[in-house]
């Protein structure tokens, strides 16, 4: 039997004294690590991805998943992963794939920014007992408002309100398609979005009819593969998003592997069962900025002018690109930082292309202000939002709202093992295998996701209260309330943030 | 965009009085009212604004400028004479005050923009605003602290009585007065940092700290305002200029923007009003003054008092005949008006708007 | 017939008039003096509606369209039938690049030449089969990423020049392309297999071409007289071995 020269990353172990031979681990593992050997469980540890499903369902705590102590000799330059990838590539000639956002130790700017708080000269506000407003509207805003005052003294406006998406808190769920994740996972997102008064995003995979009851909380996506796009679809949600790029894989398309294309997915995407669903790298009707404008308005014409979002990966020249997108008529610019998640991306792309979301939001917000068009579009920040502190910091840098993907999946059981592209997710999230997807009960997990959004909202209110603010728009772009720790002058300048102590 | 600035934080007391019938009120009145609240300041800043004080030059912009030295004065005057017809230039009358060791030169100019310098159909007001922005941000050592017509601001580093004495406030008569005593919490020493803060005929005195300062500043910068003072008060003045003069909102609507109603209340308004308020909030969310504040703003047609939407700073108002008083403390009003007809505390975010009679 | 004079009209106004007329029950519209107006027929859902266009319609003609028939009495530009769902477009002249991108259903009949990247990522599911037929020659990347549907290229006046451009069907993983005449295998994508049509294919071709010839007054027998090549994907998963799992 062929034995890879790359040693397994993890050692799945079972304490045979503790094991009661209940075989739950065999049933639960989507990767077939375990099998029955007649009197005991056999382990093929090379298949283990450390998703911890087996550990969680072992009734007697007999299972331990260890990081394999057998590693190549330590070398500060030739890391374990460099050597391992070369060996795998030598064996297969292929491109190593990965799921989720980059795990590489680039500096994390979020962790070098601290928020302000009130002491004496202005009061903090108690969010449990005083009003605290998180409501957020996404879309183009007028630059000024014409007001008339009636005989009754009440005001009315003659300025037309551009279409808006109303969010009860500055959150939305990132686009994740039916295909990349299971229908049950999409249902969790939709149910939680409805309950929390926010929105989810179909991603590029069509809209399954089971999601129609949640249409007021759905953004539909149009991407290069044009999967599932028809007039009904365009009009089904509250807005349409044109996906140009994704933070985890800027500049490259998507390949949803054939393993994740059963009948239902094939139907939604209108492609053959078991084929790889190919999303081209560019949108082939957009080779230039005026082409983007053409597509934006083609969609607006087809939807009686619903708001249109344009999603891009944050690349080096992001500020100029975002400015062009706003001038092309987008109502929202969705910035996906290089830490953004993915169902499948070549590791080499994920880990080496793009720029962090913190720099990108600061640069884009600055640029749109310099050009006097900041009101023309909302900025949605995504790509590695881990906590409500990240949310507060990115909003202070200039974002209107954040989109969260990985954090939402974690509430469904995800452990960020990064093997989404295999279609074997034991938690039933990034798989289409019916015996696995059935594990994800939408009702149960929607509750958990709702809990997360509520918890983050509470935390955000606590942060606002400490800042002495009672409306989220007073934090938005308020970089005065951020300080940098351990950042160089130029980075501080890009972020528009003072160093701590000044 | 400049972010590397040191912000100026201060607490304070404020007071204001207006005669709707434009009866003249002596400067001693506002000084008495303000001095009662001495303990709200710490002696590091005080100031006054008065309307109706220059009737003989009512058609000219009255520029009050402070200079650090002669060279800044020369540069600035050269600039002004190049752009304006100067009807009259004179030192602002002052008297020496023992406790004020250092003071800038203070000079006033009654001017009109030169037609030929007003390119591209720019209005006179915008022209003057541009001059103020330019001189204050570009000419080192020169600072315009008052630029309206038939009004003036007088301010500096000292207690209310010291500043009143220095500028001989009791010699002026006006129909609107505001006064301010300051409690700065950082390095004091610059006369321009005192209140009132003015632009054209807007004058603002302010108590509290605007926690939303950072975004208010960046929002204003989008419209060409240069925030040189780094005080909350400057933000409030420019926002009023933007909302009322440039965007044409009426005063109550502008107040709705600065202290907007809460969504929970907006949700229950009738459709037309809800639409208008929502659109205002969406459009001007970055102009919301968030945090504790009470402000008085005077202008050529009246006086307005406003506090924040959860009332974190005090404000008291009173009327007597055609007079209206607004101050941080009732006592400051009682000091100059023993028996008001009515005394009340305005509710959070609800403006007190007083207009002069025509 | 309901006539709209589109001379000098901005696309938003023209398309609003078209929509209003259709919602009032007009079935036969004539748009005169069209010149460059974008998005005609964009997103319109209506059966039995016919829109005749005199002049050159602008880009994204019939994008997302679902049902109507559009007849262009002359040439047309780029992006025709972008993500179109159903209906029919007849162009009595030549057309530009990126035709039928992501097309999901309906028919696109072009009398003359077509540009680059025609039929990119066409879809197809069961009975919903989009069809593009072009009478002239095509540019490069014909049928790129094709996942379903039928593309027919006739090259009627090719005069010995290559009918299709380079990189035919690159990334193709579904659907079928018929080309009237020889196909240079070196000009096909690696994912494409070239073969002779069988009897069923010829029946299918005849059905499609019968309607096409009728639209333009062409002789079906003459069109069918020349041999066709059939191009299909060699694999449902052209990139199955690209990745190291």
Provide structural commentary.
Chain A has 502 residues and is of the alpha/beta class. Chain A is 29% helix and 17% strand. Chain A folds into two domains: 10-94, Alpha-Beta Plaits; 169-474, TIM Barrel (Alpha-Beta Barrel). Chain A contains 15 helices and 23 strands. In chain A, the strands form eight sheets. An eight-stranded parallel β-sheet of chain A has the order 11-21-20-18-17-14-13-12. A three-stranded mixed β-sheet of chain A has the order 6-22-23, with helices on one face. In chain A, helix 11 packs across helix 14. Chain A starts with 9 loop residues before the first strand and ends with a strand. Chain B has a domain at 10-53 and 150-355: Glutamine Phosphoribosylpyrophosphate, subunit 1, domain 1 (4-Layer Sandwich), CATH 3.60.20.10. Helices cover 28% and strands 29% of the residues of chain B. In chain B, the strands form four sheets. In chain B, strands 8-3-10-1-16-15-17 form a seven-stranded antiparallel β-sheet. In chain B, strands 11-12-13-14-18 form a five-stranded antiparallel β-sheet, covered by helices on one side. In chain B, helix 5 packs across helix 6 (232-246). Chain B is globular. Chain B starts with 9 loop residues before the first strand and ends with a strand. The mean pLDDT of chain B is 91. The model of chain C has no long low-confidence stretch (mean pLDDT 93). The chains are: A alpha/beta (502), B alpha+beta (358), C alpha/beta (245).
């Amino acid at each position: 039997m062929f034995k890879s020269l790359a040693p397994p990353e993890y050692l799945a172990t079972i304490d045979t004294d503790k094991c009661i031979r209940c075989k739950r681990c065999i049933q639960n593992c989507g990767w077939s690590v375990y099998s029955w050997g007649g009197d005991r469980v056999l382990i093929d540890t090379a298949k283990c991805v450390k998703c911890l499903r087996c550990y969680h369902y072992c009734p007697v705590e007999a299972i331990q998943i260890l990081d394999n102590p057998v590693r190549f000799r330590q070398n500060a330059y030739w890391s374990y992963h460099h050597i391992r990838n070369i060996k795998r590539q030598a064996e297969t000639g292929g491109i190593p794939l990965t799921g989720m956002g980059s795990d590489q130790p680039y500096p994390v700017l979020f962790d070098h920014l601290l928020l302000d708080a009130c002491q004496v000269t202005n009061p903090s506000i108690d969010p449990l007992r005083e009003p605290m407003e998180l409501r957020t509207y996404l879309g183009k805003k007028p630059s000024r408002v014409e007001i008339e005052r009636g005989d009754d003294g009440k005001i009315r406006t003659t300025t037309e309100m551009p279409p808006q998406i109303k969010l009860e808190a500055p959150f939305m769920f990132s686009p994740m398609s039916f295909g990349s994740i299971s229908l049950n996972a999409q249902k969790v997102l939709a149910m939680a979005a409805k309950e929390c008064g926010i929105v989810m995003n179909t991603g590029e995979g069509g809209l399954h009819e089971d999601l129609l009851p949640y249409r007021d909380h759905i953004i539909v996506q149009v991407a290069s593969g044009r999967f599932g796009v028809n007039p009904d679809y365009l009009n089904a949600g509250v807005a349409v998003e044109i996906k140009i790029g994704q933070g985890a894989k800027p500049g490259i398309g998507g390949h949803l592997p054939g393993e994740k294309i059963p009948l239902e997915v094939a139907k939604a995407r209108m492609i053959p069962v078991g084929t790889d669903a190919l999303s081209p790298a560019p949108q082939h009707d957009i080779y230039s900025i005026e082409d983007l404008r053409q597509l934006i308005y083609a969609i607006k014409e087809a939807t009686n002018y619903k708001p249109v979002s344009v999603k891009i990966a944050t690349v080096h020249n992001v500020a100029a690109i975002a400015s062009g997108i706003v001038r092309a008529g987008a109502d929202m610019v969705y910035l996906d930082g290089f830490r953004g998640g993915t169902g499948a991306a070549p590791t080499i792309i994920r880990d080496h292309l793009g720029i962090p979301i913190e720099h990108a939001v600061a640069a884009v917000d600055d640029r749109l202000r310099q050009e006097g068009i900041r009101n023309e579009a909302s900025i949605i920040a995504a790509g590695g939002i881990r906590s409500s502190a990240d949310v507060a910091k990115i909003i202070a840098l200039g974002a209107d709202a954040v989109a969260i993907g990985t954090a939402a999946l974690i509430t469904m059981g995800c452990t960020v093992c990064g093997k989404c592209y295999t279609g074997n997710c034991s938690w039933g999230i990034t798989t289409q295998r019916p015996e696995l997807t059935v594990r994800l009960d939408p009702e149960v997990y929607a509750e958990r996701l709702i809990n997360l959004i509520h918890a983050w909202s509470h935390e955000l209110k606590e942060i606002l209260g400490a800042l002495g603010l009672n409306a989220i728009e007073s934090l938005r772009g308020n970089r005065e309330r951020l300080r940098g720790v351990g950042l160089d002058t130029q980075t501080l300048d890009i972020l528009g943030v003072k160093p701590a102590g000044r | 965009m400049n972010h590397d600035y040191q912000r100026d934080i201060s607490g304070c007391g404020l007071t204001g009085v207006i005669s709707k019938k434009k009866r003249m009120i002596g400067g001693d009145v506002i000084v008495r009212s303000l001095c009662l609240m001495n303990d709200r300041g710490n002696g590091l800043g005080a100031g006054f604004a008065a309307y109706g004080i220059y009737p003989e030059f009512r058609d000219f912009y009255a520029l009050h400028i402070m200079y650090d030295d002669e060279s800044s004065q020369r540069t600035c005057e050269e600039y002004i004479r190049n752009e304006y017809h100067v009807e009259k230039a004179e030192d602002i009358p002052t008297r020496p005050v023992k406790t004020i060791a250092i003071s800038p030169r203070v000079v006033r100019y009654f001017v009109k923009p030169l037609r030929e310098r007003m390119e591209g159909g720019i209005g006179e007001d915008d022209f003057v605003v541009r001059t103020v922005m330019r001189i204050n941000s570009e000419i080192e050592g020169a600072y315009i602290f008052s630029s309206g017509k038939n009004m003036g601001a007088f301010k500096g580093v000292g207690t209310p009585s010291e500043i009143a004495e220095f500028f001989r406030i009791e010699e002026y008569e006006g129909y609107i007065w505001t006064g301010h005593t300051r409690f700065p919490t950082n390095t004091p020493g610059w006369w321009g940092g005192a209140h009132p803060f003015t632009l054209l005929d807007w004058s603002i005195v302010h108590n509290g700290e605007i926690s939303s300062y950072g975004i208010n500043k960046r929002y204003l910068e989008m419209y060409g305002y240069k925030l040189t003072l780094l005080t909350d008060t400057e933000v409030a003045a420019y926002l009023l200029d933007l909302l009322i003069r440039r965007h044409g909102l009426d005063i109550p609507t502008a107040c709705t923007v600065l202290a907007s109603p809460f969504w929970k209340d907006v949700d229950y308004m009738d459709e037309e009003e809800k639409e208008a308020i929502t659109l205002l909030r969406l459009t001007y969310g970055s102009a919301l003054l968030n945090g504790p504040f009470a402000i008085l703003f005077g202008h050529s047609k009246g006086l307005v008092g406003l506090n924040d939407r959860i009332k974190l700073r005090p404000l008291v108002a009173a009327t007597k005949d055609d007079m209206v008083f607004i101050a941080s403390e009732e006592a400051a009003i009682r000091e100059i008006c023993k028996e008001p007809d009515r005394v009340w505390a305005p509710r959070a975010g609800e403006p007190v708007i007083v207009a002069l009679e025509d | 017939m309901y006539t709209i004079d589109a001379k000098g009209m901005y696309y938003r106004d023209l398309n609003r008039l078209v929509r209003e007329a259709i919602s009032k029950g007009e079935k036969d519209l004539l748009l005169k003096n069209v010149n460059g107006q974008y998005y005609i027929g964009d997103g319109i859902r209506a059966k039995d509606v016919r829109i005749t266009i005199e002049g050159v319609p602008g880009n994204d003609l019939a994008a997302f369209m679902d049902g109507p028939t559009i007849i262009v009495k002359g040439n047309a530009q780029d992006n025709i039938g972008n993500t179109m769902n159903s209906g029919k477009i007849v162009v009595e002249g030549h057309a530009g690049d990126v035709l039928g991108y992501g097309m999901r259903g309906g028919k696109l009949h072009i009398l003359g030449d077509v540009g680059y990247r025609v039929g990119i990522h066409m879809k197809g599911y069961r009975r919903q089969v989009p069809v593009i037929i072009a009478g002239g020659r095509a540019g490069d990347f014909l049928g790129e990423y094709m996942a379903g549907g039928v593309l027919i290229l006739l090259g009627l006046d090719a005069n010995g020049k290559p009918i299709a451009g380079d990189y035919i069907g690159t990334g193709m993983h579904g659907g079928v392309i018929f080309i009237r005449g020889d196909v240079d295998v070196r000009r096909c994508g690696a994912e494409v297999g070239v073969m002779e049509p069988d009897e069923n294919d010829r029946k299918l071709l005849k059905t499609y071409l019968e309607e096409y010839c009728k639209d333009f007054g062409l002789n079906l027998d003459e069109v069918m007289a020349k041999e066709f090549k059939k191009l299909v994907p060699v694999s449902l998963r052209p990139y199955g071995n690209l990745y190291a799992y």
